[in-house]
Design brief:
Number of helices: 13
CATH architecture of the largest domain: 2-Layer Sandwich
Shape: globular
Strand order of the largest sheet: 6-5-4-7-11
Structural class: alpha/beta
CATH superfamily of the largest domain: ATPase, nucleotide binding domain
Number of domains: 3
CATH class of the largest domain: Alpha Beta
CATH topology of the largest domain: Nucleotidyltransferase, domain 5
Length: about 375
């Protein structure tokens, strides 16, 4: 194959099952997908012919007879590029069909103009795809709103890039043959955790990404929710009962005033140096400890709001700026308990999965994969 094949829903269901849950027998898959053995055999034969799946190691059964061969995903059959944009850098990864990162690179943005950014992304993607089997799709994520208007996918209100309305996906597609997906960066992280991370097997999930800003992603009924205008998950300006750093909207008492890395360092008295604030807090300095305590309480409150509204099976907190969970767990628990409605806080499942910055780019690649499959 030289391009991603058109797959009908039956084929996509089988492929999704193998991608998310790994190799299994036809008997198990037929039961899970609620299809007949005959139909499943037809579907898997098509996927075998396309080279996307293979038959392999046999599964021993409890009964006599020939062991059942397992169906497996062929990870190297297709490849995806994922890109995370910040205000000044491009982070790109190449993944296979199992979302394993095979290659990655970091580049400083040559310009913030959308056409120049599209040029740079297309060039990086072509170089990463070179010599790989089936370059399938490209995903891009960034902090900002992503929506579709009149059939055009737009990036709106990207504060770090200074964009108000940029048709980035279309610009990249003019420069290369692959389909391009665009997503908010925390929504892309959420998509990745739902299929390949701490959210696998959960039909409802909330993911918070903490760093230079704060964002959230939502999964309900096994679907990533983006909202009618691409703004689902905006929680940064909910008001609290304390005073912190002035946010970009002029608030001194919103979540942004406390939870972001910049706000924590400002409230700790270390200017823009988050790691100085972190070191001071770990050394027991009172002002720094208070900054992390306020951040933890604010995080507890927004988690409570999500639990009250969505009732997720699990909450994940990830990103570069999650140290308040370690430094001020009591304040996080207090903010959660004070704002939950008729919910026992000990029953709220909150996890902090491992994080590196490349996870955003991998999430963009997985978003592109999900859009195809």
């Amino acid at each position: 194959m030289t391009s991603w094949p058109v797959l009908h829903e039956g084929l996509r269901r089988v492929l999704r099952e193998l991608i998310i849950h790994g190799g299994q027998s036809r008997v198990d898959m037929a039961r899970k997908l609620d299809v007949s053995r005959a139909n499943l055999s037809r579907l898997t034969r098509e996927l075998l012919d396309l080279g996307l799946v293979s038959e392999g190691a046999a599964q021993q059964t409890q009964t006599r007879g020939r062991p059942a061969e397992l169906l497996h995903l062929e990870p190297g059959a297709a490849h995806f590029v994922g890109v995370k944009l910040t205000g000044d850098h491009l982070y790109a990864v190449l993944t296979d069909l199992a979302a394993q990162v095979i290659d990655e690179r970091t580049e400083r943005l040559e310009s913030r103009e959308p056409e120049a950014v599209a040029d740079q992304i297309a060039r990086a993607a072509k170089e990463l795809f070179a010599g790989r089997a089936l370059p399938a799709a490209v995903g891009v994520c960034l902090a900002g709103n992503v929506l579709e208007r009149d059939g055009v996918r737009l990036v709106e209100q990207s504060h770090f890039l200074g964009w108000e309305s940029a048709a980035l996906a279309g610009l990249i597609e003019q420069r290369m043959p692959q389909r391009v997906s665009i997503a908010n960066d925390v929504v892309a992280l959420t998509a990745a955790h739902h299929w390949f991370g701490a959210g696998v097997g959960h039909a409802s999930l909330v993911v918070y990404g903490l760093g230079a800003g704060i964002g959230s992603g939502i999964v309900v009924f096994d679907e990533v929710v983006t909202g009618s205008s691409g703004r689902a998950g905006h929680i940064g300006h909910a008001r609290l009962d304390a005073e912190g750093r002035v946010c970009e909207l002029g608030h001194t008492n919103c979540v942004h005033s406390f939870v972001t890395m910049g706000s924590i360092s400002h409230n700790a008295g270390t200017g823009d140096d988050y790691f100085a604030a972190l070191g001071a807090a770990r050394a027991g300095e009172a002002r720094a400890l208070r900054a992390f305590a306020l951040a933890a309480r604010a995080l507890g409150i927004v988690i409570a709001d999500a639990v009250n509204t969505i009732d997720p099976e699990k909450v994940l907190v990830t990103g570069e700026g999650v140290d308040m969970m370690e430094l001020a767990p009591t304040e996080l628990s207090a903010g959660l308990a004070d704002h939950l409605e008729q919910v026992d806080p000990t029953g709220v499942v909150i996890e902090r999965p491992p994080f590196t910055f490349s996870h955003y780019a991998r999430g963009a690649a997985i978003t592109a994969m999900r859009d195809l499959i």
